[in-house]
Amino acid sequence: MGATLLAALLLCVGASLPAAPAAFAHDQLISSSPAPDERLNKSPASIILSFSSPLLALGHEVRVVDDNDKNWVAGAPVLTRETLTQALPELPDGGYQVSWRVVSADGHPISGGYRIHVGNPAAAPPAASASAGASSEPSGAAANGTGDGVPGWMPAAGTAAAAGLGIYLAFIGLRRIKRNTQSPSE
Question: pTM value?
Answer without folding.
Answer: 0.56
